[in-house]
UniProtKB/TrEMBL annotation:
Pfam families: HMG-CoA_red (PF00368). Pathway: Metabolic intermediate biosynthesis; (R)-mevalonate biosynthesis; (R)-mevalonate from acetyl-CoA: step 3/3. SUPFAM superfamilies: NAD-binding domain of HMG-CoA reductase (SSF55035), Substrate-binding domain of HMG-CoA reductase (SSF56542). The chain crosses the membrane at residues 37-58, 79-98. The keyword Transmembrane applies. It comes from the Eukaryota. Its EC number is 1.1.1.34. It is found in: Endoplasmic reticulum membrane. This is 3-hydroxy-3-methylglutaryl coenzyme A reductase.
Length: 585
C-alpha cells in the first residue's frame, strides 16, 4: 500500500487535521444530484431553450432591420429571451466541465488532512480510497456501486492505523549504513531484534539503492517473526495472491471446500464445475497406494567393485534391521522403509525411502540418511561422500524414478459420472470425452515425449492448492505427475474417470503451513497441524484432496475442450479490462 511504504528520503512531515467540517453536509453530494431533473432531461431542456431563443432573437432582429426599428429597443419578451440565452450559454459551457465545477463547490470536504506537502498527502489518500473497490467476482465481473463515505472520525482512525511507518534518526543512520555497505542487509534481524523493523529498513535501503519504488508491494499485515529462519530470508514485503474456493468436493463420503490460490481466471470456476459434476454423480473415491519420502546421496569409491560391494550390503535383507535402527534415531516419526541403489561406474546412488508422519519430510529423511552415511564409514572407510543429494531422489525435477517408484504420497482417485450429468453440467457427451482423452492425454502426450504428463492440466490445480496450503510450490514439478483415464461404462451411458498420481509431496506441519493464511486454509480442509489420533493421517488426507481436486479440474477442462468452450470462457473471464498498473495495493 502506498501509504505504508517508506519511499521518501526526506523526513516524513506530521499530518495536521483540517478545519472542522459539518456532518450535516453530505460530502458525497454532486452537482447533478442537486438539479431538480435528471441530468439527461436537464441537458435536453437547456439545448432546446438555447436554440429556441436564438431562433426567436434572430427572427426578431431581422424584422427590426426590415422595418428600420433600432435594435436596442427591446420589449419584455425579447428581454426574457436574452436572459434565457445567457443562462443556457453558461450552462452549456460548464456542462462538459461539471466535475471542475463540483471540485470548486465542494473543495473544503475533499480532504480530511493537510500537511506541508499537501499534494503528496492527497495522492496517498486517493490511493487509500482506491482499495475500497472490490475485485470482480468469479462469474459476475460487474463492479458493485461504491460504498458511502465513512464519517470523518472513522476516516481519521483508518488513516492513523495505516499510516506511513515513521523513520527515526536511528533508522536513518542504519539505512545509510546498509546503502553504504557497512552493515550487511542480511544481519538486520539479528542486530535489531525486531523483524518488522528490519524488513522496513531493508526495503527503504533497497529503494534508495535501486531508485525503484516498491509502492505496490505490501509491508504491513505480515508476522515477520513467523518467517524468521524458516520461510524466507531478507524479507521486504509479501506478494498478494487471491484465494478462491472450489467445491464442495465429495470425496470418500466427506465434503471438502478446496482453497486455491491463483491468478489464472477460470481455473477455480472450472474446478468448481468439476466438483459439481462429481457431487451430482455420488462423489469420488481415492486410495493411498504408497507413503514415503526419498533422499538419494551419491558416494564414490576407488573402483566399481567397491561400489558394488556397498550396493550388495545395503540391499541385503539381513542388514536392513541394523540400518533401520541407525536411520530411525533421527526422528520419532521417520521410519526407514527401503533402500534402492544404482551404480554409474565407481559411483553409487542410494535411494532411501522413509515415512515422515504429517511432515512433507525432506529434512527428516536427510537427517536419517546422514546417520547411515556416518555409520557406513566404519566398514567402508574408502567411501567418499560427494553429496547428500545425488538427484536420484529426485526432488523438484521430472524424473522416471518418481513416475515409476513414487515419491511422497501415491494416490489414485476415481469417479463414475452419470450420462445426464455429462450432458447437462459438462455440456458434452461420454463418447466425445473418451475419444478426446485418448487422442490428447494419451496419444498426444506420447507424441510429445512427456514424462508423467499424461493429463490436461494437473499442475494448475496442484500449484493452486499448494500455494494456498503452504506447500513447497517447486515440488509441483513431480507432484503433478498424473495420468488421466476415461472410459465409457454401463453400456456406454456413463463415464468412468480416474487420475493416478504417484508422487504427491505434501505436509501439514513445518515450512509454510504454519503461516496464518496457509494455516487457515488447512483448517478449512480439516487437516491443520499433526494428527493426534494417527500420525500422518492429515497429510495423507491432504494428498487425497489434491488428487480429488485434480480429478475435478481434469473433468471440467476436458469437457470444455470437447464442447469447444475453452476459448470462449477464457475470453470472458480471463481477460481483464482494468488497468492493473494503476491499481493500488
Amino acid at each position: 500500500m502506498e501509504a505504508t511504504r517508506l519511499s521518501s528520503t526526506k523526513p516524513i512531515q506530521a499530518l495536521k487535521p483540517k478545519e472542522t467540517v459539518s456532518f450535516d453536509e453530505d460530502p458525497m453530494t454532486k452537482v447533478p444530484d442537486a438539479l431538480p431533473l435528471p441530468l439527461y432531461l436537464t441537458n435536453a431542456v437547456f439545448f432546446t431553450l438555447f436554440f429556441s431563443v436564438v431562433y426567436f432573437l434572430l427572427s426578431s432582429w431581422r424584422e427590426k432591420i426590415r422595418t428600420s426599428t433600432p435594435l436596442h429597443v427591446v420589449n419584455s419578451s425579447e428581454i426574457v429571451a436574452i436572459l434565457a440565452f445567457f443562462a443556457s450559454c453558461i450552462y452549456l459551457m460548464v456542462f462538459f466541465g461539471i466535475d471542475f465545477v463540483q471540485s470548486l463547490v465542494f473543495q473544503p470536504s475533499s480532504g480530511v488532512w493537510i500537511s506541508e506537502d499537501e499534494e503528496e498527502n492527497e495522492v496517498l489518500l486517493c490511493k487509500e480510497d482506491a482499495r475500497k473497490v472490490p475485485c470482480g467476482q468469479a462469474l459476475d465481473c460487474s463492479l458493485p456501486p461504491s460504498p458511502p463515505q465513512a464519517p470523518i472520525e472513522s476516516a481519521q482512525k483508518v488513516f492513523e492505523e495505516k499510516a506511513v511507518t515513521v523513520l527515526t534518526e536511528e533508522d536513518e543512520e542504519i539505512i545509510k549504513s546498509v546503502v553504504a555497505g557497512t552493515i550487511p542487509s542480511y544481519s538486520l534481524e539479528s542486530k535489531l531484534g525486531d523483524c518488522k523493523r528490519a524488513a522496513a529498513i531493508r526495503r527503504e535501503a533497497l529503494q534508495r539503492l535501486t531508485g525503484k519504488s516498491l509502492a505496490g508491494l505490501p509491508l504491513e499485515g505480515l508476522d515477520y517473526e513467523s518467517i524468521l529462519g524458516q520461510c524466507c530470508e531478507m524479507p521486504i514485503g509479501y506478494v498478494q495472491i487471491p484465494v478462491g474456493i472450489a467445491g464442495p468436493l465429495l470425496l470418500n463420503g466427506r465434503e471438502f471446500s478446496v482453497p486455491m490460490a491463483t491468478t489464472e481466471g477460470c481455473l477455480v470456476a472450472s474446478t468448481n464445475r468439476g466438483c459439481k459434476a462429481i457431487h451430482l454423480s455420488g462423489g469420488a473415491t481415492s486410495v493411498l497406494l504408497k507413503d514415503g519420502m526419498t533422499r538419494a546421496p551419491v558416494v564414490r569409491f576407488g573402483t566399481a567393485k567397491r561400489a558394488a560391494d556397498l550396493k550388495l550390503y545395503l540391499e541385503d535383507p539381513n542388514n536392513f534391521e541394523t540400518l533401520s535402527v541407525v536411520f530411525n534415531r533421527s526422528s520419532r516419526f521417520g521410519r526407514l522403509q527401503g533402500i534402492k541403489c544404482a551404480i554409474a561406474g565407481k559411483n553409487l546412488y542410494m535411494r532411501f525411502t522413509c515415512s515422515t508422519g504429517d511432515a512433507m519430510g525432506m529434512n527428516m529423511v536427510s537427517k536419517g540418511v546422514q546417520n547411515v552415511l556416518d555409520f557406513l564409514q566404519t566398514d567402508f572407510p574408502d567411501m567418499d561422500v560427494l553429496g547428500i543429494s545425488g538427484n536420484f531422489c529426485s526432488d523438484k525435477k521430472p524424473a522416471a524414478v518418481n513416475w515409476i517408484e513414487g515419491r511422497g504420497k501415491s494416490v489414485v482417485c476415481e469417479a463414475i459420472i452419470k450420462g445426464d450429468v455429462v450432458r447437462k453440467v459438462l455440456k458434452t457427451s461420454v463418447e466425445s470425452l473418451v475419444e478426446l482423452n485418448m487422442l490428447k492425454n494419451l496419444t498426444g502426450s506420447a507424441m510429445a515425449g512427456v514424462l508423467g504428463g499424461f493429463n490436461a492440466h494437473a499442475s494448475n490445480i496442484v500449484s493452486a492448492v499448494y500455494i494456498a496450503t503452504g506447500q513447497d510450490p517447486a515440488q509441483n514439478v513431480e507432484s503433478s505427475h498424473c495420468i488421466t483415464m476415461m472410459e465409457a461404462v454401463n453400456d456406454g451411458k456413463d463415464l468412468h474417470v480416474s487420475v493416478t498420481m504417484p508422487s504427491i509431496e505434501v505436509g501439514t506441519v513445518g515450512g509454510g503451513t504454519q503461516l496464518a493464511s496457509q494455516s487457515a486454509c488447512l483448517n478449512l480442509l480439516g487437516v491443520k497441524g499433526a494428527s493426534k489420533e494417527v500420525p500422518g493421517a492429515n497429510s495423507r488426507t491432504l494428498a487425497t484432496i489434491v488428487a480429488g481436486a485434480v480429478l475435478a479440474g481434469e473433468l471440467s477442462l476436458m469437457s470444455a475442450l470437447a464442447a469447444g468452450q475453452l476459448v470462449k470462457s477464457h475470453m470472458k473471464y480471463n481477460r481483464s479490462n482494468k488497468d492493473v498498473s494503476k491499481a493500488s495495493s
